Amino acid sequence: MQRRFVTADVFTSSAFSGNPVAVVLDAQGLTTEQMQAIAREFNYSETTFVLPATVPQATARVRIFTPRIEVPFAGHPNVGTAVVLARHWEAAGRSTGDQFVFDEGAGLVSIRLLREHGEVVGAELVAPEKLTLRETVGVEAVAACLSLEPKELRTSTHSPQIASIGLPFLIVELESRQALSRAKPNIDAHEKTLPPFGIDAVYAYVVDCAAGELHARTFAPLDGCIEDPATGSATGAAIALLTRLTGKPTETRQWRVHQGVDMGRPSLILGQVEKRDGIITEVRIAGRATTAMEGILHAT
Question: Which letter does DSSP use for residue 183 in this model?
Answer without folding.
Answer: -
